Amino acid sequence: MPAPSFELLRSRHIPTLNLEAREYRDKRTGARHLHLAADDPNNVFCVGFLTAPEDSTGVAHILEHTVLCGGERFAVRDPFFMMLRRSLNTFMNAFTGPDWTAFPFASLSRKDFDNLLEVYLDAAFFPRLHELDFAQEGWRMEFERPAEPDSDLVYKGVVYNEMKGAMGAPHARLWQVLCTALCPTAPYRFNSGGEPSDIPQLSHRQLLDFHRRHYHPSNALFATYGNFPEREHQEKFHRLVLNRFEAQKETLCAPCERRFDHPKTMSVSYASAGELEASTHIVIGWLLGDTRDLLELLRMHLLAGVLLDNSACPLQHALETSPLGTSPSELNGLSPSTLEAIFVCGLEGSEPQYADALESLVLGQLQEVVTKGVAKDLLDSVLHQLELEQREIPIGRYPYGLRLIETALPMALHGGDPIAALDIDPLIDRLRWETEQPGFIQALARRFLLENRHRIRVVMAPDERFAEQEAWSERERLRATKLAMSAKDKAQVVARAAALAERQAKEDDPNILPRVGLEDVPPDLDIPEGQPSACGGLPCTWYAAATNGLVYEDIVATLPQLGPDELQLLPLYCDTLTQVGVGALDYRQVQAWQARVSGGIDAQCSVTAALADVRRIHAVLRVQAHGLARNHAALAELLQQTFGFARFDELQRLRELVAQARSYRESAVTEHGHTLAITAACSRISPAAFVLEKWNGLTSLRELKGLDKELKQEESLLAFSERLKTLHGKLIGRIQHLLVVGRPLNGSVIWRS
Q1: d(CA 716, CA 718)
Q2: What are phi and psi of 210, to 5 degrees?
Q3: Phi/psi-derived region of residue 466, left when phi > 0, alpha when psi is between -120 and 50, beta in every other case
């Protein structure tokens, strides 16, 4: 039964997810509550707001940061960071999306959950939004030497600096350019995170007004997941928030885009972090349909999968093997994150003069699909992937319940059906029937892409002076601002810098915040216990778990003693192992095989230091895959054949994989510069850290760039192939263990030795 202030709108059991979805509405404000009742102790809460941007000042992003600086009840400067030390949470964060903002957390402890709920609701609905917090989190001008007005003015601020770094990454810039071009009248033309050049236009008053309009219960979705009763959640929502609001008259929405009457082209520049040659990005983007139409959205996913899912797909294969660029663009595929989905395909590592040829290649491949169709096996494998994505439970610290809420949240905020977005099995059945109809995929390719005039081609070329020009423009703006300042204005800048420094140095009383004590920590940890068995002559450990009808299988092998060259080769060996041919099958046939039976297969090496002695390390190789439980035997066969009989003799494929790896690693330098710096700094602390730097740091990138150049020579490519074969021969004899996670199937795993 709901709390008295709420009414139940509907309820639906979703068997594939093993949960009950119930949707409620608050009678007073119209606030919605979506509860996903599941037998899961890791309970999740999230409150989300529709925050469609009206400019690129980053107001939604800055507001997300600033509300986390304390609220009405918990008036401390940084309650969220302080709660990390007073909580048993399994997740705490906040997100700014293209047109929504969300504040989620998760915890296994009821008391901790309630503590965090009070802090989150206080911050979101009743924040202090102090002007100095806005200056700290958003942007401010200070003198380079804060107390000396004769020094130069500079911009500072957490979000300002974050977005300068983010927009320095080529793929982030390309995506924003593409969204702006495809959506010239919709909110997605603006950068919701904030353009560094526009952020200083935002005032504190505008921030306050944005909060008043958007962070209102009438514009909110409260979402919960887990085994805590929803009535208790609703009583807290009412007591802590809803009783203080009335229904909002204004209805906020994100409008759809007006359609182009012809395709367009544009060229832009970006700051190159490396070589100018073969560093151009060329992509073609289409605006497709409304993502609230779930069947249409699944049709879009089906078409995108048929074209780009793996190397067996026609468009992906054409892009991978094209001499027009180094590798397929990282933006390739369908993005349903906006109200209307965007489909992208293209290349990176190209040259501007290849733009016409690339567009002809893409449109030619689409025309071939329209003319000839695709194999039924390919359609079936993409449907299989859609079913897997619906059921998959993410590995790691990210709570499963939050992944479900993230699927439902944008749908609810856009006025769609959040429960239907979770229960897509009936729609997949409908889609499966549609794929049996003659000409179905051809009609999709024609309607969504070939005959869709809402298309743009973007050429983004490197410019070695781009960063310098941006920095010069910023300095000139600041210089002009300083020239226009009076002595009083300068004194105010100095005074505010001093006030902010004083505020940042102030130590808040942590006892204002709720906490959990030792008495709230369970005396026993729920650590899964594996059941040992033998599988095809291998030692095997099975961990029984509810996995939504999936099974996860890993081969684990302890690494032998390797020489420096072999150790350096390991990451590339892992990258190529699951991307090459196996036995008599070539790599395209293997990609199709993987798509038919698994939700993904990859290989990775890990190295850890011994607890007793950091100088001793333990390194293992894992080849892992997951798939539907009904395919567990086929999955085991795929793993065994891949690890046992991978072939490294497809030289052109090896050349493509190394070029792609180099392209991806280089483009990630700007975005992950801090990680590279940490890895380098730690590399001399222990042998394990030294190895990790060799595998993932700047050393490996240097080696990769050198190798990529070498492999343009036939003899170097042959030598590289032989090195991989030799290393593979050393590793396949080291198989030691099989790990399986899933529900027991007849008490055993099928494994062919």
Answers
A1: 5
A2: -65, -40
A3: alpha
CA-based nearest residue to 643, from 599, 600, 601: 601
Q: Please give the single-letter amino acid code of residue 185.
A: T
String of DSSP letters for 444-510: HHIIIIIT---EEEEEEEEETTHHHHHHHHHHHHHHHHHHT--HHHHHHHHHHHHHHHHHHHPPP-G
Q: How far is CA 600 from CA 142, 323, 474, 551, in A?
A: 50, 28, 45, 12
CA nearest neighbour of 339 among 456, 186, 447:
186
CB atoms within 10 A of CB 434: 17
Place of tokens 């960071």: 81
* pLDDT tens sequence across 22-33: 999 999 999 999
CA distance 450 to 363: 7
Helix axes 294-308, 425-435, angle to 10 degrees: 60
Looking at domain 264-405+417-463, its CATH architecture is 2-Layer Sandwich (3.30)
**Strand-pair partners of 554:** 624, 739
What does the alpha-carbon distance between residue 559 and residue 563 come to, in Å, rounded to a whole number?
A: 12
SS3 574: helix
Given a contact cutoff of 8 angstroms between Cβ atoms, the answer to whether 703 and 569 are in contact is: no
Both structure tokens of 481: 């601002």
> May I ask the CATH architecture of the domain 531-741?
2-Layer Sandwich (3.30)
Residue pointed to by tokens 């904030």:
194
As its CATH architecture, domain 34-176+185-252+486-510 has 2-Layer Sandwich (3.30)
Residue 552: exposure state from Cβ atoms within 10 A (0-12, 13-18, ≥19): buried
Closest alpha carbon to 61 in 36, 94, 29, 86: 94
Annotated catalytic sites, by residue? 64
CA 581, CA 564: separation in Å to the nearest integer? 27
- Count of CB atoms within 10 A of residue 678's CB? 14
Which ranges of the chain have pLDDT less than 50?
747-753
- C-alpha–C-alpha distance, residues 546 and 558, integer Å: 28
Report d(CA 106, CA 92) in Å as an integer: 7
pLDDT in the model for residue 742: 85
293 CB-near residues (< 8 Å, 6+ apart): none
What does the pLDDT look like over 349-360, one tens digit per residue? 999 999 999 999
Cα separations (Å) of 377 from 306, 333, 583, 593, 631? 10, 20, 21, 10, 16
The residue written with tokens 């492999």 in the block is 711
Question: How does DSSP classify residue 183?
Answer: -
What is the distance between the alpha carbons of residues 551 and 210, in angstroms, rounded to a whole number? 46
- CATH 3.30.830.10 domain extents, the chain: 34-176+185-252+486-510, 264-405+417-463, 531-741
User: Tokens at residue 423, please?
Assistant: 């229960």
Q: Do 19 and 37 touch, CB atoms closer than 8 A?
A: yes
**CA distances (Å), 107 to each of 40, 43, 91, 517, in order?**
11, 6, 7, 15
Q: What is the pLDDT of residue 313?
A: 95
Dig out the tokens for 629 from the structure. Answer: 């439980």
Report residue 443 as tokens: 């009609």
